[in-house]
Design goal:
- The protein has about 325 residues and is of the alpha/beta class.
- The protein has a single domain (about 70-295), classed as Collagenase (Catalytic Domain) (3-Layer(aba) Sandwich).
- About 30% of the residues lie in helices and about 10% in strands.
- The chain has 6 helices and 7 strands, in the order H-H-E-H-E-E-E-E-H-E-E-H-H.
- It has helices at about 1-20, 55-60, 115-135, 180-190, 275-295, 305-315, and strands spanning about 105-110, 135-140, 150, 160, 170-175, 205-210, 260.
- Strand 4 and strand 5 (about 170-175) form a beta hairpin.
- Helix 1 crosses helix 6 and helix 3 crosses helix 4 (about 180-190).
- The chain is globular and about 50 Å long.
- GO terms for molecular function: metalloendopeptidase activity; zinc ion binding.
- Its cofactor is Zn(2+).
- It is an enzyme of class 3 (hydrolase).
- Keywords: Hydrolase, Metal-binding, Metalloprotease, Protease, Signal, Zinc.
Length: about 325
């Protein structure tokens, strides 16, 4: 599968370079199969001593698509799947520009020993969703990158930090379990700077929290952020967001913990970016993406196209 994809890139490069009058034979020296391995990410994840890795891993493995809870809600971290650091007080959100990826470009590295070819294809398809629907561009890690994400399956659970962090960070996809299209899209949204939808300052206008149904000790997962920390960019609350909790998140008795105030509405989904997710992401990154477009870097099309431009820029 990957050989075919690399072959496609080689053919496209020959056409592009020939049209530019560049000696295409020099490209034969490029090893498309070779990947640059980044340093160990600074932010690999810090777990409490009481974190039950084995229990969580078993929950993730046994999760089924018919389950009422989202799989990422089972990861045992803050709000289920948000990894925090010693420097993170859970107060840096969407409004803080320092946590955005410059130019809307995210260098990434897939730890291939943790996944088979089919898994890697699922990961790349999730990345492609961002390329097709937003101005965000993921490209392979290169040596000059200081900030990047490493996608791996070293730990239990499906989790990510929120926003960009200095000197590398992990997006963890327990395997088997977390390598699903919607799960990957969800975790990458965290890495891009998004918290969960029901944490919005105005959430009480849209949903009711049924505190009596929440597992003891998990109430903090339903905290709200003030509007100085997070923003919806004027787009509004989104019942359909891939970042919304399920109705049964952290339920102790099988009863709903969140109830929509609007009738005939389902909370969240596990498939893809919603229309409002896409709009919020575009608003959040329009300035960064604008800088990139002014500089003429990182293309606007598919993952193959951005790889071509990236390789050409290095060769030329």
């Amino acid at each position: 599968m990957h050989c075919l994809k690399y072959g496609k890139i080689i053919i496209t490069l020959l056409v592009v370079t020939t049209s530019l009058g560049i000696d295409s034979t020099s490209l034969i020296e490029i090893d498309f199969g070779q990947k640059i391995i980044p340093p160990t990410p600074k932010f690999q994840g810090t777990f409490a001593e009481t974190h039950e890795h084995e229990t969580i891993a078993n929950r993730i493995k046994s999760w089924r698509k018919t389950d009422k809870q989202n799989i990422w809600e089972l990861s045992g971290l803050y709000e289920g799947d948000i990894m925090t650091t010693e420097e993170d007080e859970i107060k840096n959100g969407l409004i803080k520009t320092a946590f955005r990826w410059p130019g809307g470009v995210v260098p990434y590295y897939i730890k291939e020993e943790d996944f088979d070819e089919e898994d890697i294809e699922v990961i790349k398809n999730a990345i492609e969703d961002y390329h097709q629907n937003t101005c965000i561009r993921f490209r392979p890690y290169e040596k000059s990158d200081i900030d990047y994400i490493t996608i791996e399956a070293k730990s239990s659970g499906c989790w990510s930090l929120v926003g960009r962090h200095d000197r590398g960070q992990v997006v963890n996809l327990q395997n088997p379990g977390c390598v699903q299209h919607g799960v990957i899209v969800h975790e990458l949204m965290h890495a891009l700077g998004f918290y969960h939808q029901q944490s919005a300052a105005d959430r009480d206008e849209w949903v009711a929290i049924n505190w009596e149904n929440i597992k003891p000790g998990r109430e903090h997962n339903f905290n709200k952020y003030d509007n100085r920390t997070v923003t919806d960019y004027g787009i509004g609350y989104d019942y359909d967001s891939i970042m919304h909790y399920s109705s049964y998140a952290f339920s102790k008795n099988g009863e709903p913990t969140i109830t929509p105030k609007k009738k005939n509405v389902k909370l969240g989904q596990r498939k893809e970016l919603s229309e409002k997710d896409t709009l919020k992401l575009r608003e959040m990154y329009k300035e960064e993406c604008g800088k990139r477009e002014m500089n003429g870097t990182a293309g606007n099309n598919s993952m193959d196209d951005i790889s071509i431009e990236w390789i050409l820029s290095k060769k030329l």
